[in-house]
Specification:
This protein has 71 residues and is mainly beta. It is 8% helix and 41% strand.
Length: 71
């Protein structure tokens, strides 16, 4: 059975989207989800509860990914 990891990367505006990776992001949040739909929701709440909320759209942006993992 497959599971998924929802990944939210916070990258500085100066980093091109293609280069926004785990290594270059200023913040990386990961959570295991049951399916691909789980990757599309919930991350807004996670970021809204952090100090990062004030920077998003001003000095940084979010990039979300859905990664398949084998159990």
């Amino acid at each position: 059975m497959n599971a998924f990891i929802a990944v939210v990367l916070v990258c500085a505006n100066g980093i091109p989207q293609a280069d926004c990776t785990d290594d270059r992001a200023s913040e990386v949040r990961k959570v295991r989800v049951a399916n691909e739909l789980g990757c599309t929701s919930g991350w807004q709440e996670i970021i809204a509860r952090t100090d990062l909320r004030d920077e998003i759209g001003k000095t940084s942006y979010l990039k979300t990914e859905c990664r398949r993992v084998k159990e």
